[in-house]
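Worked example 2:
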Amino acid sequence: MRDAVIVEAVRTPVGKRNGGLSGVHPADLSAHVLNALVGRAGVDPALIDDVVWGCVGQVGEQTFDIARTAALTAGWPESVTGVTVDRQCGSSQQSVHFAAAGLIAGQYDLVVAGGVESMSRVPMGSSVGDQKPYPDTFLNRYGGVAPNQGVGAELIAERWGFPRTRLDEFSVASHEKAAAARAEGRFDAQIAPVTTDAGVVQHDEGVRASTVEKLATLKPVFKPDGVIHAGNSSQISDGSAPLLMTTSEKAAELGLTPIARVHTAVLAGADPVLMLTAPIPATQKALAKSGLSLDEIGAFEVNEAFAPVPLAWLADIGADAKTLNPNGGAIALGHPLGGSGARIMTTLVHHMRDNGIRYGLQTMCEGGGQANATILELL
């Protein structure tokens, strides 16, 4: 029976908005990690059947199927195709799901899954302009309320009873974990430094020292009396990450060593106004489908879109808090929308291999009240 395995995973450092990667075209950023990926694996890119690439802001420099543009920018043969995926923040995690499905179905033998987002160059919301994304029929279904992720985060904090201090404590801890991981070199093997006209970007730029007292001085963004502010939200970022995927049989044929198998891949949908709670049912669905128990999962990655999201997940799922985002999350590392799913999975794969963790689970909240959940098995 065919399977889907990850044989290599790499990422750029995550650049802060208008930071070290802001001068790099997103196709060039993608091409850089595509070449780093095949270089590390020792694979001829001519063998790759497709590049499945997540990107949310498919406008301007990220339009015209940036997956194909990236492969050609990388200098890969014209025979290598590319397709661009939008499942909002989970776009490149969905790319992994599509790639895995294609491998298992026999449509692919060797495929790249990943994504990119340059939020400095293509600001969030650029694709909307002055248009109306939700028709009246949609709005009428939800009482005339247009979904807003920040308002959704406020609603989650209120529903789960999280005071601002709890959110800020979580955010400070995210920076502390990321800073420790960086200082100890835990990210070094997964990062492909980017050389720019201004110098070399080697490390994630968003990680900084913070305190609850510092965060208390920040003004709420979405409600005057709210609890969500810039310090307990994911950072606007630039970055890209790919994973090289194949089957166990093809890996053996090519002399590649699988790192992890895609054990289970599911989706879940929930309230699109609350928007950010679907990781909870997605996790429950993944566990039920996999036949694994919660305590068999040694590492969890739940995207830190806003601090209430992983905290609500933790409260409802009941996982050990020490296994959640062990190297920090998007509050500290940043959230380059279309590239985040692959960035997180790259970090998860390396963490599992470095620590001998058999099963890891990743889930992300997504626009429209959706979530992907993926369970990986270390090989």
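The chain has a mean pLDDT of 98. The longest helix spans residues 164-183.
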